[in-house]
Amino acid sequence: MKRLFLIAALVGAAPALADEGMWTYNNFPSAKVKEKFGFDPSQAWLDKVRLSSARMAGGCSASFVSPNGLVMTNHHCARGCIEQLSGAKKDYIANGFYAKTAAEETQCPAMELNQLVQITDVTATLNKATQGLTGKAYNDTLKAKMSELEQTCSAGDAKVRCDVVTLYQGGQYNLYKYRRFQDVRLVMAPEHAIAFFGGDPDNFEFPRYDLDVTFLRVYEDGKPAQMDHYFKWSDKSVKEGDLTFISGHPGRTSRKLTIAELEYQRDVAMPKQLFLMSELRGMVTEFQKRGPEQKRISNNLLFGVENGLKAIKGRLEALQDKTFFAQKVAAEQELRKKVESNPEMKKKYGAAWDEIAKAEAQFVHVRKDLAYMEGGSGLSSSLFSIAKTLVRASEELPKENGERLREYSQAGLPALQANLFSQAPIYPELEILRLSFGLTKMREELGSNHPFVKKVLGKESPDKLAARLVKGTKLCVLKDVKGSKVCDVSVRKSLFDGGKAAIAASKDPMIQLALLVDGDARTIRKHVEENIDAVIKKNSELVAQAKFDTYGTNQYPDATFTLRLSYGSVKGYMEDGKQVAPITQMAGTFEHATGEDPFALPPSWLKSEKLIDGTTAMNMVTTNDIIGGNSGSPVINKDGEIVGLVFDGNIQSLGGEYGFDEASNRAVSVHSDAIIESLKKIYGATRVLEELRPGSTHVPPAKANPAG
Amino acid sequence: MKRLFLIAALVGAAPALADEGMWTYNNFPSAKVKEKFGFDPSQAWLDKVRLSSARMAGGCSASFVSPNGLVMTNHHCARGCIEQLSGAKKDYIANGFYAKTAAEETQCPAMELNQLVQITDVTATLNKATQGLTGKAYNDTLKAKMSELEQTCSAGDAKVRCDVVTLYQGGQYNLYKYRRFQDVRLVMAPEHAIAFFGGDPDNFEFPRYDLDVTFLRVYEDGKPAQMDHYFKWSDKSVKEGDLTFISGHPGRTSRKLTIAELEYQRDVAMPKQLFLMSELRGMVTEFQKRGPEQKRISNNLLFGVENGLKAIKGRLEALQDKTFFAQKVAAEQELRKKVESNPEMKKKYGAAWDEIAKAEAQFVHVRKDLAYMEGGSGLSSSLFSIAKTLVRASEELPKENGERLREYSQAGLPALQANLFSQAPIYPELEILRLSFGLTKMREELGSNHPFVKKVLGKESPDKLAARLVKGTKLCVLKDVKGSKVCDVSVRKSLFDGGKAAIAASKDPMIQLALLVDGDARTIRKHVEENIDAVIKKNSELVAQAKFDTYGTNQYPDATFTLRLSYGSVKGYMEDGKQVAPITQMAGTFEHATGEDPFALPPSWLKSEKLIDGTTAMNMVTTNDIIGGNSGSPVINKDGEIVGLVFDGNIQSLGGEYGFDEASNRAVSVHSDAIIESLKKIYGATRVLEELRPGSTHVPPAKANPAG
């Protein structure tokens, strides 16, 4: 595949023509959209779209699609829930799920949805607080002030979540206030075989034929939540050339990083991550051969690893592209030259790039320690994470809010507790594999003589230690509830409520390990935060301000898993000298089926082939600027109606981490027509259909499911 | 670990002071050794050392250590044989092996040793033949002339092997004539646990405590081969500061590659290889958990993968070191500037670097096709390789010698047949894993729509196809011989003897697959050989000649798995600011034991701890310049006597692929004293001891084995 990285606008200046940008809702370039597409999104339009959009706390996007709290997202965004609700004898991943009645809608053990209700600019407040500070003082003050703002905002209401969001690498700070939905139930999911048709080989590719959709419902006080704002379903099929908006939560881009930061990503961070993930992939692939239940419980992990591998490889290739990287270097040099030529700017910003480079160079020496002692690379176990959270909560919660580690601040507590007390099952066999793998890597990367390695392993092997810890802990006692496994979390609750005394008295081996390593973990984290992160943050703020001063404020910030709006249109592209059409048809799905996983269609599709209109649009590509985290985002038209559902980007879009190339960077979506056609003719999901398009079905709800 | 790459001499000029160089025997810098160490190796000395050295065709080094054909090498070099001779009930890898009588010495199913008996410079002959030629004509002529020289040299004698060796990237061609030993028997091997004590975590590290030794014996006509030349065992323990020589077969270095070639290695080849190997490592690690027999049959593969991973990661880090790479760039620029400033040189050599760069850029576009269609990345199966060899032999052997693919030339036939008819067992379960893995990668890398992928997979999944092929082929029918599995190779023999007709009539699925893909495989190979390799070869010759013209001929060529001699001394080094002592003691082995693999000592060691003199030297480091392939090389003193056995390099030595840094680059060896002490007190291997040091044992051979 030939990859082009001819970036329209690499520096801060707003792109002139390209459909570039993951725009914040308080800085959307409506004028630009009007100029190119003749449609001028009003503030009311923007507000409505924002309030109809949803964030999935686990790292995806979604949308409200009915007044009764119906939510649409991707199957791969709800996989965790679908898998958790499954058991050896009712495999919803393999067979799909459909709640024929409201009573059958089943709660996801660990899912939270957020709706962005307010954005407030708090840049001035924070800048004033940290003025003149550096290092530890800067870091402590910034952290304390952020926690204070968040606490004031949420005011102890567990239904509210407030985050101070760092935008433009610190050039701007906004306070985002969310309404939280913690009772999320599964309504309808197709079979994995069609949701992820083509599997890893076709992931990030186009043409595609996936029905990567799942419907959920948010509940409040045991009843479907009533939504003032939601997206209606469009009656008109979106076509080539039509204007499209995508409202969602791109997770991260690195378009505004300095060259030193990009070099670190290219030469150290990404290769190391890829080696680790490749090995884990091989291990889990082979683990799946232990048996069907092992396959079932590890599918989600394997999907995540494979998806991540392909995404990171794409990003690495982008940075290894010499022409592209040279453009990045030239853009930085141009900005630095402008700064140098202006005495006032030079004084304020001139040293920032070299300071960041020095901090990056220092980080290389401690990155392994940080990853294995404080990060999750070595003690790579959900059970250990729970133990660590319990140990730290007992230390942190008695402290003043502003003095706590960031993730234990008052505003974040409801989310932390929701996570901590989630009953989502943790399977010992897979957990041992993951932990043993992490311990082996820890010994390999830090060396068998590293004091931390000796402390953790003692005279045990990674396999033996992992097995002893996982089998010995009571942090998840698996029990059967209606044929599904869930964790009994009573031990977690009593340890959390019991605080320091309970933790100290605990004989649980995971708690004891978390206690054993906590001092070392805190030490390395503190070192990095105060001596490296603080330097990078402070100087990144300066670089951002230099860009504002030089190129103006009509820019979008790098993605930060906060709500963004992008605009574009349905449009094909050239690949290897051939034109790729922007829309595929349902008939193509059958043509590509081989009968063998991952190209095997589920029985429901095979038996419905003749019922389906093969010319129905299946998947499509649009020029919208998106990135990982946008999965599950609604594609809407200018009337704010659903015309599609983002589920991927093409392989060329992976370089979007570092810059947008309108020539070939494409968002890949399920066309709304395919969703309707399959709900109607394959799944007979009349309840859902009726809710999406009231009056569109003529079958009484009672016998709504001809296929089931 | 801090890594320094301050290279004494990056360009062609001979290093002034450092113990750098893997010298050919016909260009050894005796004068330089004399200047630094006061010893002047004579031609007779060099001849004796050369003839006492041995090459293991599988990719290691060895030495003759008695007049009766006793051979010393590493345990890890003989692993393949030890594993092949083992069975579920007699695991020589785990328990070691000792032939108490001559009759118990057991033939290795697939091992060949070579002794270098003659070197002839054929540069002028080849240059004359290819003068003025380029592309296909250059390639065909070079290949034909090489085959002709080799055939004339070996003259049909199966006991002789002749190779035209390309040195200095084509600056020189030498004809190497070897005496072949194909009957190699296992004499004594310690347990894997002590041979590879510390396992992968300690691999490429120092201090070390490994007894990585194995004794073999070469036979001729069913009797121990009588050797005119062999190394005597030194009576004197080698000590810090002593002069040491290492004679062995470094596999490959890339010190003289151009920047374009190094960049390709750094940015494409090595990362891709590491991703692949990491994944395979994870898979095999988990495969080992299927059971003890699966662990046993896959240990060798896992060792190879882990060893390779660590080695390549070290090399990649070297090339990613900015200071080091800048030195390489500067050296090339210096040479190019000299060439540019001399009109005659400019005309002859000026374009060479850019031509190589262009060819490398082209190669990027076809590397995947080459790797998966002709290379072994996709059809990664020993059984497929055998099928491919049979199919190609039927095509190639009827051709004129000069027109055949290189590996089917007359001179190479004995080695090819030895390989093809080796009875070394191939285990279906592991074979299916390897092949399925390769097929999955092929689909992933080439894409599921690639015509070759479609041709190979059809509508089958990689797992299913791999299982069908491996279970269906008769190219290795496993049978039991004295408790070991071996392949019945009669089908291979009849297909080989039956030629094209037999191949065409074969219903064997591996043969049919090999036939199916052979056209595509040949096409891509031919394309690369004629349009890319030929350009690189031709222009590399020019670069080499430019170096000779500029810096003189007192240089050593890059390693090419041909016999080299390096000099140096026993010497510690600085690491992370601490001095590392050059010699460890046997007592340290016990101190580092944890009881858990890979730090678990075998029972024989545990029960002999008190018998051993703990102050006996165990492992040591020397400044000799070596690289992978040198494993098993003898370390000798100026009297040409054994003082150690190379088994590794330290982690800093991995950058030796691209340049030698005497400050920290070290060869790691088993000290000869540890070999004697353990043969005597742990293994009671009196037969071997008596042969190494006649008269040194006073126990009659009949009750020679107190431990066994």
UniProtKB/TrEMBL annotation, chains A, B:
A Pfam family matched in the record: Peptidase_S46
Gene3D superfamilies: Trypsin-like serine proteases
Signal in keyword set: yes
Domain of life, source organism: Bacteria
Enzyme class: hydrolase
Signal sequence, renumbered to the chain: 1-18
EC code(s) of this entry: 3.4.14.-
Keywords tagged on the record: Aminopeptidase, Hydrolase, Protease, Serine protease, Signal
PANTHER family to which the protein is assigned, alphabetical: PERIPLASMIC PEPTIDASE SUBFAMILY S1B
Record family assignment: Belongs to the peptidase S46 family.
Described function: Catalyzes the removal of dipeptides from the N-terminus of oligopeptides.
Name the record gives this protein: Dipeptidyl-peptidase
Record organism: Myxococcus landrumensis
